[in-house]
Design brief:
Elements (H helix, E strand, L loop, with lengths): L8 H11 L4 H4 L5 H4 L11 H12 L9 E2 L13 H6 L2 H4 L11 H18 L3 E2 L6 H14 L6 E5 L4 H11 L5 E5 L8 H7 L4 E7 L11 H10 L3 E5 L18 E5 L15 E5 L12 E5 L5 E5 L6 H4 L12 H38 L4 E3 L8 E6 L4 H10 L2 E2 L2 E2 L10 E5 L6 H16 L1
């Protein structure tokens, strides 16, 4: 093996002579020596086999969802992933593909993205979708930028207090220097009250972002009324949603929402330490040119054959520079491909059945948990596959530590997002959890609360 050296010794000597220095050291003499060649406190190199062994030993310290019964949620979920998903997504045609700027050499990648966009449109009930974004949080933030860019001087952006806290933080970071006034509407009993939303809406309202099912698992029951109120004020509504929930719930388009966003992780993507995932974004036709990121379109070539190309590229950063609709100039094509394969594998009936099982198993778990002394379901609202529990006299983190000792990831403590909220946790029950596993979760929860 030899180092990759793009220039020969004679090449380097010629270039140094041209710029008037005799060596690389002379070229770097203006930089402090401690920066150029810092002394690093690292051990001596070891063999490949020793390094692999050490990494395996470190990996064994991880607590993995295939070794524990997993009831974690709050944005990342343990769902069934059929073997066809990694088998196809890892094919070299997809795995090593680069940006498809040359459509004549990229028809496979472009067709896969076009099919993905088509499926997202079907799920959300909206007219157009982009080729994907980074994850759910940045998708929410891009929706905020679309709202800001369409506001025509309007300065208020309303965020539902039931959105994932990290999504709200991401949005606020993105719009910090855009002159927008961000207004948070707090929840009542786990959802946004229509009257509270109406009181925040004025003629300055550019738009509102809401999540349903929301961070607490509740389905926003006043969504249609809130959408109507925002539209009457001349604003736009963006809705963040779990794509799997759309198998059994009304789509954003049916509510009259202008922009739908979310995280595609439930669609065939492993938990993998919190990422990479893919964000999805769809919108109505009148917002198409405001949409960020790549868009693949279908057309015909000079011989009349169906072809796929990147379209409406004049919106993008590599052409419009600082006037682009967004600084997103890529997409999560490989991860979104997993969503594409997953949805194709499931089909409409399979996708509905998966959603139905999430609903039934989660509601069974919630009913059983509510029968435990000292435990209550936090909100009396409809939910999909997540719900919150309150503890009367113990901290949620203490309960979860005891459940982990039983080999169960029991839920996510809300103190992770709000230090004052230490007696509540959010629980997710997916189609992977059998009745025996749910019953084990109930028994462990009961024991943890009593002890």
């Amino acid at each position: 093996m030899m180092d990759y050296v793009p220039a020969s010794q004679s090449d380097r000597e010629y270039m140094l002579k041209e710029i008037g220095v005799s060596s690389i050291d002379d070229l770097l003499s203006c930089i402090p020596a401690g920066i150029v060649r810092p002394k690093l406190d690292v051990p001596e190199g070891i063999s490949e086999f020793d390094a692999a062994y050490q990494l395996k030993m470190l990996a064994h310290k991880n607590k993995r969802v295939d070794h524990y019964k997993c009831f974690l949620g709050a944005g990342a979920y343990d769902h069934c992933i059929p073997s066809v998903v990694p088998a196809l997504a890892s094919r070299s045609e997809f795995y090593t593909a680069y940006t498809p700027y040359q459509p004549e050499a990229s028809q496979g990648t472009l067709q896969a993205v076009f099919e993905y966009q088509s499926m997202i449109c079907e799920l959300t009930g909206l007219d157009a979708a982009n080729a994907s974004l980074y994850e759910g949080g940045s998708a929410c933030a891009e929706a905020a930028l679309m709202i800001a860019g369409s506001g025509r001087g309007k300065t208020d952006l309303i965020l539902a207090g039931t959105m994932h806290p990290w999504y709200r933080d991401t949005v606020k970071t993105y719009v910090k220097h855009l002159g927008l006034n961000v207004i948070d509407v707090p929840h009542r009993n786990g959802v946004i009250d229509a009257a509270d939303a109406a009181s925040a809406i004025t003629d300055k309202t550019a738009g509102l972002i809401i999540q349903s099912p929301n961070f607490y698992g509740c389905i926003e029951e006043n969504l249609a009324e809130i959408v109507q109120a925002v539209h009457q004020a001349g604003g736009l509504v963006a809705m963040s949603c779990n794509p799997l929930s759309l198998s059994v719930l009304k789509s954003p388009g049916e509510y009259g929402v202008d922009i739908a966003v979310g995280d595609g992780q439930p669609l065939g993507v492993d938990l993998q330490y919190g990422g990479p995932y893919f964000g999805f974004l769809a919108c109505t036709n009148n917002l198409l040119r405001k949409m960020p990121g790549r868009i693949v379109g279908m057309t015909k070539d000079s011989q009349g054959r169906r072809t796929f190309v990147l379209t409406l590229q004049a919106r993008e950063q590599h052409i419009r520079r600082e006037k682009a609709t967004s600084n997103i100039c890529t997409n999560q094509a490989l991860i979104a491909l997993r969503g594409n394969i997953f949805l194709s594998w499931a089909g409409k009936e399979g996708f509905y059945e998966m959603g139905r099982q999430n609903v039934q198993r989660a509601h069974y778990a919630a009913r059983e948990a509510a029968n435990i002394d000292g435990v209550t379901v936090s909100f009396d609202k409809p939910f999909f596959n997540e719900f919150c529990l309150n503890f009367e006299s113990v901290k949620a983190s203490a309960v979860l530590d005891k459940m982990m000792a039983d080999g169960i990831f029991g839920g996510v403590p809300l103190s992770r997002f709000d230090a004052l909220n230490d007696k509540m946790m959010v629980v997710c029950v997916t189609e992977k959890r059998s009745k025996d596993e749910i019953d084990s979760w109930i028994m462990s929860l009961k024991k943890a609360v009593r002890n």
